Amino acid sequence: MTAAPLLAVENIGKRFGGFVALEGVSAVFGGNRVTAVIGPNGAGKSTFFNILSGALKPSTGRVLFEGRDLTGVPQHAFAHHGIARSYQITTIFPQLSVHENVRVSGQAFRSRYNIWRNRDLDRELIDAADAALAAVGLAARRDRTARLLSHGEQRALEIAIALVANPRLLLLDEPTAGMGPEETKEMVGLMERLAADRTILLVEHKMKMILGLSDRILVLHHGRLIADGTPAEIQGDSEVRRVYLGQSHANA
Asked: Which of 75, 35, 81 is nearest to 54 (CA)?
């Protein structure tokens, strides 16, 4: 018996009134790979990500994760099944410490709540938060107030917050937004390390980075999937060059 793919989207569509944001998008994703979703503004990338994370219910089609149909289930159920997401705008608790930010997230995934238990003394939770911070290179910033971190460190903290749930699929929405070259390089290295143990899907606009990092690229245009392939295949696709990359980008 063939195992179900990690993630499969079947004929996904989304309408907002008379506006068609997505139409007939189907794709299958395996394990431990980096896949980028690209396209011009208004292509449907954010809508696609919102459906994959459970923030939106598709108008048509299904979302299957490890063979389970998650279509239309509450967003928190996606997280408990093993799907975590970061957002384009950093979402952290700036007044809490770095460790507290991750620990609060980990606490949400505890199976039981006990009002008599001192969460500060919960060794399992503390260790999980420390492991997530170590994974993103923030172990030395453990006790620092989150608002004092650099922009790149705050983005890494947001990923640590997602990692504490030990997701098998990590959705990253423009993880290098607002970063300079050095911070972008560090984030790319982090994503490469994380992809050794999980599947990563990301939306990004930095084409040089995407072409160097991704194993696979999906291209959306006017809500439709127009290309799906390796970076080399996408660079050589005449339709992609026409609607998005441009000849100069494709040859960069």
From this structure: 75
